[in-house]
Amino acid sequence: MPYIILGLITVLTFSYFTSTDSKLNTNILPATTLEGTISNSHTTGLATETENEIIRILLVPGHDKKSVGGQYLNLTEEKINLTLSKELMQLFKNDTEFDIVVTRDENGYSDFLNTYIDDNKLSIESFYKEKQEAIEQLVERGLFEWPDGPHHASASSEMVLRLYGINKWANENDVDIILNLHFNDDPERRSHHDRGKYEGFAIYVPNTQYDNSIASKSLANKIFEKLHTYYPISNLPQEKSGIVESHKLIAIGSYNTLNIPSVVIEYGYLYEPQFDNEITREASIQHLALQTYLGVHEFFENYNVESANRQKERKVFDELLREDNNLVYGLRTNKSVFTLQALLAYLGQYPPQEYTKRQCVLDGDFGKCTESAIKEFQKEYSLVIDGSVGSETKVKLREALSENN
Ligand SMILES: [Zn+2]
Predict the structure, then answer these.
(1) Ion ligand 1 — residues with CB < 5 Å
(2) How far, in Å, CA of 131 to CA of 256, rounded?
(3) Which distant-in-sequence residues (6+ apart) come within 8 Å of 21 by Cβ?
(4) CA of 395 to the centre of ligand 1 (A)
(5) Cα–Cα distance measured from residue 245 to residue 168, given in angstroms and rounded to the nearest whole number
(6) Closest of 38, 162, 150 to residue 97, by C-alpha
């Protein structure tokens, strides 16, 4: 694990140059140290923290109504980011371990954030300018390597102030992790009506030289494992590793402006077929939110997470298997088919052999992919191989689910 060693070296470097407000230990032992960083002093009055163990998550649905991000037909990125954020809020809100704070909802930016940015414009500016200068000095002295890539879209000066404002606020308000929610776009796509040539997900993490690098990476790994059970990694060349380091993304703490783990999750490309219509989009977003939630949970590993998580994940599958319907070839944009595909992926049966995740997305369409996967399953369980899901196949799927520990 070379990055741990690298990280430790840079921890020492940074503790020398920028030791004033860094929670340096965050780098080494995420879960335990993070608990230790939570204090009871809240200046915002946002949440009442009674126990030390409550984990505070800052959700940042990317972009806003003014600068919507990508667009495909009528679907804008800011809107789909917000929908996902709402699903995640719901999951975390029902979980007393977590205190969840969101930067914006359908009414715009949250009041606490607007007030903070209005009241602190100058100190936010000097905050990030000082951090930038510190890094620039390190670069000059050969102590920080400034890499070439990856490429990112640039932000307006208003957005830059807001994003650094979010970082500063998070550093000051006992936030434990930051989740930045985004959907991707193909930069070469010609119009809102065309699909692009890329698909899949990617997670951005801070460059190894930054203070919050290691904890961010271990958070990213947990979410990655979950998402990758179901979705292909983005085939955009700069994202082919799935977890991508960046030294320039403000949201994950460019110029060492965050001492908290932070990840940018690009869940998929806006124009991917599973987001086309409202039915499969809803199923798909709920599924993406659940996987993220499960990954975050595992990152913190406080109690018997695994079995609790498994229950949560299986509830949806159990409901599907209780439904009194036949799922057959030709069904399109169907929520039950989407869940069936997710169940098959969970069991390791989807995509079927000879197919890739990229060829067989979770899209709610009962086509070749689903049919082949079901046929393989039926063969394995000595059922009549007809490629459709009736009551007998459901019984066997239920068996397979309970065997899968
Ligand atoms: Zn975005």
Answers:
(1) 62, 69, 182
(2) 7
(3) 171, 259
(4) 42
(5) 21
(6) 38
Listed by start position, the domains of the chain span 2-41+50-300, 314-403
> What is the β-pairing status of strands 104-105 and 108-109?
antiparallel
Per DSSP, the three-state class of 201 is strand
The pLDDT value recorded for residue 5 is 32
Place of tokens 């899968």: 404
Report the candidate in 353, 350, 88, 402 with the shortest Cα–Cα distance to residue 229: 350
For the chain, list residues with pLDDT below 70. 1-52, 302-309, 405
Q: The CATH number of 314-403 is which of 3.40.630.30, 3.90.1300.10, 1.10.101.10, 1.25.40.280?
A: 1.10.101.10
Distance 182 CA to ligand 1 centre (A): 4
Q: How many alpha carbons fall within 13 Å on the CB side of residue 129?
A: 7
pLDDT for 306: 63
Burial class (CB in 10 A: 0-12, 13-18, 19+), 150: middle
Short-list 54, 21, 62, 81, CA closest to 166: 62
Torsion angle (degrees, nearest 10) of CA 141, 147, 152, 155: 0
- Measured between alpha carbons, how far is 204 from 276 in angstroms, rounded to an integer? 25
- Residue in this structure with the two tokens 């098959």, named with its chain if needed: 344
The whole-angstrom separation of Cα 400 and Cα 398 is 5
Q: 376 CA to middle of ligand 1, Å?
A: 38
Q: What is the dihedral of CA 346, 348, 352, 354, to 10 degrees?
A: 140
CATH number for region 2-41+50-300: 3.40.630.40
**Torsion angles phi and psi, residue 177, rounded to 5:** -145, 155
Quote the pLDDT of residue 155: 87
Residue with tokens 């997900």: 201
Q: Decide the pairing of beta strands 202-206 and 243-246.
A: parallel
Using the mean position of ligand 1's atoms as its centre, give its distance from the Cα of residue 65 in Å.
Answer: 13
